Amino acid sequence: MIDNVCSFFAFVSGVAVVAQLAAEFNNFWTDARTPVRKLKLELSRATEKHILDALRHTPPPMDRQASYRERLPAEMSRLRKESRHYRRMHLLMQWMLFVTSAAISAVTAWYDPPQPAKGILICLGFTVTVITAAAGYFKPRERVFNLQQTADSIEQHSTALKLGIAPYSESDQSRNLELFATTVEGLRAEQRMREQQLDQPQQGQQQVI
User: Fold this and answer.
1) Cα(44)–Cα(66) distance, rounded to whole angstroms?
2) Which of these, 93, 106, 168, 206, could form a disulfide with 176 (CB 3.0-4.6 Å)?
3) What ranges in the chain are assigned the alpha helix state H?
């Protein structure tokens, strides 16, 4: 019985030794991280290939600037659309101020003393206060001016480029396009900066200035 048990353990030990040797000297188990490194290497090569292909297929600056010029009408349309929106808001606020201010004077003159119309006067005064505060906060008039000015300036430069007049009168079209793109981006940056200044509180605007 003991011999059988010893033989069994010897057999199991032999199998374990053989399995260990196979694991140690088999190429598949030599380094379990090899497949990961290989995948990383392939991924790196694929990324480099993608970058090189993208660079080869990237259009030259002149083509990109020409495409930029063709996209500007949509930008001008957006600016004018926002300008019309704020213009309507500004006009609505102004008319509401006119009507409520006139109503306050009319009610005060009609009821002398104005005790019976006290509730109406309170409501009208509250409306005037709210509209005045909203106009001071949203500044629709200033936004209309900024948006319309930017749209008109972009249209002026676009027309000058199409007609080939100053400052786009050079014979080299690529330089004209480069100057045009630089100028328009400067106009858009100024417009965004003015919008940010309008969004700041009055104290913050004074500190910026």
Assistant:
1) 34
2) 168
3) 2-25, 27-30, 34-57, 61-110, 118-138, 140-163, 173-199, 202-208
